[in-house]
Amino acid sequence: MKVGLFVTCLVDLSRPGIGFAALKLLEGAGCEVVVPEAQTCCGQPGYNSGGREIAKALARKVLAEFRDCDYVVAPSGSCSGQMKVATVHDLFQGEPDLPEFEKLAAKWYELSQFLVEVLKVERVPGKFAGTVTYHDSCSGLRELGVKMQPRYLLQMAGASIAEMDGAERCCGFGGTFSIKLGEISTRMCENKCESIRATRAGAIVGGDLGCLLNIEGRLRRTGDKDTKVLHFAQVIAGEE
Amino acid sequence: MQIQSMFFKKRASEKLDDAILQGNMKRAKGKFVDGRAKAVAEFGVWEEVRTHAAKVRDRALANLDAYLVEFERNAVRRGAVVHWAEDAEEACAIIAGIAAKNGVRKVTKSKSMVSEEVNLNERLEAAGVQVVETDLGEYILQLAHEPPSHIVAPAVHKSKEQVAELFVRAHGKPRLTEIPAMTREAREALRDHFLTADMGISGSNFVIAETGTTLTVTNEGNADMVTTLPRIHVVITGIEKVIGTLEDFATLIRLLPRSAIGQSITNYLTLTTGVKMPGDTDGPEQMHIVLVDAGRTKLVGSDLQEMLRCIRCGACMNHCPVYQNVGGHAYGWVYPGPMGSILTPVYVGLENAGDLPNAATFCGECAVACPVKIPLPDLMRKLREQQFDRKLRPWSERMVIAAWGFTATRPALYALLSRIGARVARWMGGSEGLIHWLPGIDGWTKGRDMPAPSGRTFREMYRQKRSGASHGR
Ligand code: SF4
Q1: Interface membership of B306 toward A (CB under 8 Å)
Q2: Does residue B393 sit at the A interface (CB-CB below 8 Å)?
Q3: Is the pLDDT of residue B128 over 80?
Q4: Which domain holds residue B280?
Q5: Which is the most buried residue in A44, A73, A205, B321, by most CB within 10 A?
Q6: The whole model's pTM is what?
Q7: Which architecture does CATH list for A130-237?
Q8: Where in B401-467 does DSSP place strands (E)?
Q9: Is residue B73 part of a domain?
Q10: Under an 8 A CB cutoff, do B362 and A179 touch?
Q11: How many C-beta atoms surround the C-beta of residue A70 within 10 A?
Q12: What average pLDDT does this structure show over B181-194?
């Protein structure tokens, strides 16, 4: 089974460890993983900024790079939403390459969904003794139905989960929103951090690096140097 | 209402610092969101009815012209006069004209967002007509000289204490502390107006083509008073409110109060069909129905048409984390929250409301909550596309997107730049690995640190690992 790993631009640039954790998990479960070297970004920043043509160009680029894979997996609900939902429901509606994108969408998985629903893993390499709280990122949750999968995997690694109030509330990241409307974004993030603090968990875990950087940035700015901010892949791969 | 939507950012910033408002918003959020969730869960067939409701609205919009003509025919048959207003000015002129012709001195009003849209009160007051808002929320705001901040609960931004203060000043009675007592005092103040008004103005949630009926949903029963007591009844509403049949209405009314405030049924449903007929014990002698376009036909047939399905329940704003934090006034016009972020740019011009389509993280809560399945984030994105194409966003922002697009489609260049970027940012992050301030993204760094990259990109590390592995083999 040939699995393409879509690393995502943020992971590539900022937290390569998440990419390697994903790689370890997939290879550990027996997948033959390919990582096309020319990959960059799914196009969502352009898409959500009104740059539709840029988004389409990048989607076509992703398609070309992963066409030959049996599956494509990304450690992000947001990029996966872009490639599974935005392409087929909007960007390529009524265009000749729609069937190609439908095929790509059908074999594209967010990492936790792939591990749980396709690979049906029963064991993960990571061991995590502490308590974590989980933030549900919006696209993964509302576009793809990512909810129980990462929690299930975290528990498999031995973590106990203290649910925060409003785990499904947006953290305020929203891509360029976090810069364009920074004050509102910061307030939304502060609301999220309040919920996190209230759980007294040692780590806040999520599945989208954008949200995690946002949350980490606010926690650190407000003097919290201790709470770990982790991608679930890092925890379950034992690479935190 | 004065258009202030161009100042969204500045106003939002003020609202974020308004401690009283923040407290009021927090309270309201709990009530609306939890109430709706409970009502939806109890309903059992929510998704099915929701799907059907979207179809009902789409059918009405597909047949808008035919339904409107049918509505007019049936309303006229029952003695009503139907007026067509192309814009705000025309709507006001029609109603002011009716008032002048009939020597109207006092008007009682039940809640109407369209009347806010066209600035009707101001116009009537300028003509010397006294206007009394009779919806409790609107009444409070009239005393406070403030516009509504929510389409269902217009005074949601006010606390009980703030209202008590207003009542002391307006009614000249001792300060009250309990809501039932305050409501009673307002009713007493309003009673006399109900009985002495010459004209009642109501909005309408739906107008029904097959019967010529206008329909108003309230919880206070004030619309009954406004529509039946005065000798003239004027309905002002948007042309998109027409639906085919009473049965269509039966579908929509199952969703409206549940979505709005978690009620399974509304307290009052006021259906008015024509004027007082021989043998009727009450009802107005004249009924005028003013159907307002004011930008709506621009949406018909456009890629934003789905917005016209809106039944004005307010669920999208109740569930919007941006609205919850800044309140309705920040949006600067009649319609706040996600629905307003689409309607305001369309009705007042995208160039006058540039921040609104961008005031969303696309978290999707509004689209999940909307009872008629309007894909609100998708529509906001369409407006962002218009802004992009019409070059309405700042030059710097467009340049960044263009430069990013250019680079991201050129892998070698991208690899090089991200490699440099990761190192520079790593260096900037210092020993803590946090960037405290970065020009260009100060919107972020004002309230948050930017966690610095680890220093090397995945791409280069992966390549190294692979070549290491193959050497080792
Ligand atoms: S857009 Fe949907 S949720 Fe918002 S007010 Fe209209 S009907 Fe209600």
Answers
A1: no
A2: yes
A3: yes
A4: 44-298
A5: A73
A6: 0.96
A7: 3-Layer(aba) Sandwich (3.40)
A8: 434-435, 450-451
A9: yes
A10: no
A11: 12
A12: 96
How many CB atoms are closer than 10 A to CB B246? 15
B275 with B141, same domain: the answer is: yes
Domain boundaries, chain A: 2-118, 130-237
Burial class (CB in 10 A: 0-12, 13-18, 19+), B370: buried
Which amino acid residue places its CA nearest to atom 6 of ligand 1? Answer: B310
- Of A93, A104, A112, A97, the C-alpha closest to A42 is A104
Evaluate whether residue B447 is within a structural domain. yes
B403 in a domain, yes or no? Answer: yes
Chain B nearest CA to A106, separation (Å) = 22
Nearest to B370 by CA among B411, B339, B396: B339
Q: pLDDT by residue (tens digit) across A151-209?
A: 999 999 999 999 999 999 999 999 999 999 999 999 999 999 999 999 999 999 999 99
Measured in Å, residue B70 CA sits from the centre of ligand 1 at: 26
Mean pLDDT of chain B: 96
Q: What is the pLDDT of residues A91-110, one digit of tens each?
A: 999 999 999 999 999 999 99
Task: Count interface pairs A-B at CB distance under 8 A.
Answer: 196
Q: Which of B244, B277, B298 is the last residue of a domain?
A: B298
Judged on CB neighbours under 10 Å (0-12, 13-18, 19+), B430 is: exposed
Name every chain B residue with its beta carbon within 8 A of the beta carbon of A184. Answer: 12, 16, 322, 325-326, 359
Provide the pLDDT for residue B473.
46
3-state SS of B80-115? EEEEEECCHHHHHHHHHHHHHHCCCCEEEECCCHHH
Residues B293 and B405 in one domain: no
**Statement: residue A114 has pLDDT above 70:** yes
Domain count, chain B: 2
> Which of A184, A189, A234 has the most B C-beta neighbours within 10 Å, making it the best mutation to test the interface with B?
A184
Per the CB < 8 Å rule, is A186 touching B446? yes
Point out the domain boundary residue: B238, B270, B298: B298
Q: Is B284 in the pocket of ligand 1 (CB under 6 A)?
A: no
Does the beta carbon of B61 lie inside 6 Å of ligand 1?
Answer: no
For a pocket test of ligand 1, which of B316, B334, B341 has the largest count of ligand atoms closer than 8 A to its C-beta?
A: B316
Query: pLDDT tens-digit profile of B292-311?
Result: 999 999 999 999 999 999 99
Whether the predicted pLDDT of B472 surpasses 60: no
Over range B9-18, report the average pLDDT: 96
